Amino acid sequence: MLADSILTRVWEIADSYYAKHDWAHGRSHIERVLKTAVEIGKREGANLEIIELSAILHDIFANEEKHTGVEGFRHEIEASKEARRNLKRLGLADKTVEAVCHCIESHRKRTGRIQPQTIEAKCLFDADKLDCIGAIGIVRSAYMALTEGQEFYKQEDIDAYKRRNIRQDGTIIDYAQHSSNLEYELSLKEVAKRMYTETGKRIAKERAAFMDEFYQRLGKELKGII
Ligand SMILES: [Fe+2]
Ligand SMILES: [Fe+2]
What we know:
This protein is an all-alpha fold. It has helices at 4-15, 27-44, 48-57, 62-68, 75-89, 94-105, 119-130, 134-147, 158-165, 180-186, 198-223. The chain contains eleven helices and no strands.
């Protein structure tokens, strides 16, 4: 495992980017992803140092991407570059730095252009996606919708919505027009099928079933059927 002094410095760097009270992409998301990624990593025989470093730094530009609204700004690419600069400054070996950067640049699900190639990158990818589904995924999705000023549930034809508010590259044009169930239909529904590791697949299957039941029930309740 990493020396405490390195870990402390990496957390200090991370904390200068993450909002404390952002439940979706802030410190609490990072702590959940870290815990899950390490658990998956142990079962998959991965290098836990690489997993720890990449989990802590993977989303440092997630909020910036959302709020700058600049087309072409990709938080996984920018975070990877920033991680490389910072980790080199801390004196970590080039091999370690490059392995961490690959995990970060390949962690994005919907519009990711770089696929995870190493077991560590696969563990981070799976852990990050697991935070979007299941009971935690529902609560996180509600938090994101409400903090973005969105409705939690919107009834809209998914193809019409895609034409109206989703760019060619899959990114969202106006976050205020998005909603939790549209995010579920567009992306979260497919997350369990995207897992790379056997451990991730097993956990995702259970979480996805729970989440699917929730949205089906919610849809019926909002129609007044049950
Ligand atoms: Fe991310
Ligand atoms: Fe993340």
